[in-house]
């Protein structure tokens, strides 16, 4: 199902449909401040496993990333020292993924790698969803697997066609971007940019 939601003013009725889908263990595709992404309630392990299957990702070998509304309850999901927190505070909301050591609150599926990516996108649609859900969202970029260059899908209607039957809901929040987030490894005291994407670190 394709659901139109406007970023400036997300309609509470439409948002409620998304929340209901997520609470039922459903999978959704949604806009971020970079590319469109596929996600689910990050604390619903069966839904997380379903997305890993669709994306061909082995959670034992890949870092998983979650979207939080803000940094207020970050310590529930990741261990963050003062320096990392200051860096994140300066750059979020924004097009960054910060890799941090996992905390004890996250389900075991995240702890295989002992690290988790944290996103707070500068996008009102997905942040409203996370806020209303009360849990973070698991997030993985939607891209065209058959392109040699990692061409991210930008048109929500085409994404809905491609994922028809595999996800429960595609949110049309307008055209998506082409550039993924900048990934910053904060697991040691030497912060390192492991992928330069859309964001420039402050």
UniProtKB/TrEMBL annotation:
Transmembrane annotation, as ranges: none
Domain YrdC-like: 12-199
EC number: 2.7.7.87
Name of the top EC class for this enzyme: transferase
Record's keyword annotation contains RNA-binding: no
Domain of life: Bacteria
Gene Ontology molecular functions: L-threonylcarbamoyladenylate synthase
Key word Chaperone present: no
Keywords: Nucleotidyltransferase, Transferase
NCBIfam families recorded: L-threonylcarbamoyladenylate synthase
Name under which the protein is recorded: L-threonylcarbamoyladenylate synthase
Origin species: Parabacteroides faecalis
């Amino acid at each position: 199902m394709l659901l139109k939601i406007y970023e400036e003013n997300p309609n509470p009725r439409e948002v409620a449909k998304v929340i209901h889908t997520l609470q039922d263990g459903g999978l959704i595709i949604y806009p971020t401040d970079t590319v469109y992404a596929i996600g689910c309630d990050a604390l619903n392990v069966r839904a997380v496993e379903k997305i890993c299957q669709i994306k061909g990702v082995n959670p034992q070998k890949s870092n998983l990333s979650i979207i939080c509304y803000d940094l207020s309850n970050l310590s529930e999901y990741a261990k963050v020292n003062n320096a990392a927190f200051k860096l994140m505070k300066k750059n979020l909301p924004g097009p960054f993924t910060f890799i941090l050591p996992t905390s004890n609150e996250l389900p075991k599926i995240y702890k295989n790698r002992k690290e988790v990516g944290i996103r707070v996108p500068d996008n009102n649609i997905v942040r409203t969803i996370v806020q209303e859900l009360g849990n973070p969202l698991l997030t993985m970029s939607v891209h065209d697997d058959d392109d040699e260059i990692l061409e991210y899908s930008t048109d929500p209607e085409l994404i809905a066609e491609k994922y028809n039957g595999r996800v429960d809901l595609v949110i049309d929040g307008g055209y998506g971007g082409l550039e993924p987030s900048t990934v910053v490894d904060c697991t040691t005291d030497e912060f390192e940019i492991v992928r330069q994407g859309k964001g420039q670190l402050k």
